[in-house]
Amino acid sequence: MSKLAAQDKFFDLSDYGRAPGNLIAKQLKNTRFTPIHVTLLFGLSGLMAVYFIVQNRYYLAGVFIILKSIIDAADGELARLKNKPSYTGRYLDSVFDIFLNFFFLSAICYVSITPFWVALFAFFCIQLQGTLYNYYYVILRNKSVGGDATSKIFEYKTPKALPGESQKSVAILFKIYTLVYGGFDKIIHSMDNDAYKVKTFPNWFMTFVSLYGLGFQLLVISFMLAFDFIEYIAPFFIGYSIFIFILIGVRKRFIKA
């Protein structure tokens, strides 16, 4: 099941885990496994990747990072198949993502000559890149007829819990979410504050934006680990941030609000 209407679908470079994730979700549809269980499983996969980085087993670390991306696609798909969307799963997923990204960069710093401040700056850059992707993608999803609107363009108010989930859990996770993501959201919104007024984004544009999707970022990290380019991971993502300005410039110049 797609998050977008047919006319708004684009080739998402970061969504390579969707097909195997869908297969996993279909296998779990009629079981007791919930989307939250799957989210916890992708968190475990990410932690296994951190462990293998610290153990200098970079190939295995890359495998578990890609596995994390696949399982990450499965939890949302399972929620749609079971018709049980939840804000708990939506925020828990995002919170896991940002903490795992921090752990990945910290582990890379630990086993390499990368200074911690460089790893920290790379983490900041990765999150800012991902926020730009999510900003445009969520706008597209909310504007798309029949698209998934669980994620909001502006996250400033605790949402009302959906059937089957606790309002308390939603409130706690929302506070954590806004705490760890709020600063990145504000930076991107300030850089392109009228993007939400755009009726839709062309498919070609969203494909380019997907270079900043978390799945693609993790794929790059996995390949760099596998080829033992660990010393270059943090510098690469710092330099990779130049496309933030290019993409925003293209949006403002060619895709008018």
Explain briefly what this protein structure is.
Helices cover 67% and strands 0% of the residues.
- What distance separates the N and C termini? 29 Å
Largest sheet: none
Shape: globular
The count of helical stretches stands at: 10
SSE succession: HHHHHHHHHH
Rg from alpha-carbon coordinates: 18 Å
β-strand number: 0
Helical content band: 55-70%
Query: Which structural class matches the secondary elements?
Result: mainly alpha
- Would you tell me which CATH topology applies? Four Helix Bundle (Hemerythrin (Met), subunit A)
Structural summary, described in words:
The chain is mainly alpha-helical and 257 residues long. The protein has one domain: Four Helix Bundle (Hemerythrin (Met), subunit A) (Up-down Bundle), CATH 1.20.120.1760. It is built from ten helices and no strands. The protein has helices spanning 18-28, 35-54, 58-81, 87-111, 116-143, 167-191, 203-209, 214-226, 233-239, 242-254. Helix 3 (58-81) runs antiparallel to helix 8 (214-226). The mean pLDDT is 93.
What labels would you give this structure?
about 260 residues, mainly alpha, Four Helix Bundle (Hemerythrin (Met), subunit A), about 0% strand
Topology:
Layout: H1 18-28, H2 35-54, H3 58-81, H4 87-111, H5 116-143, H6 167-191, H7 203-209, H8 214-226, H9 233-239, H10 242-254
Helix pairs in contact: 1-3, 2-3, 2-4, 3-8, 4-5, 4-6, 5-6, 5-9
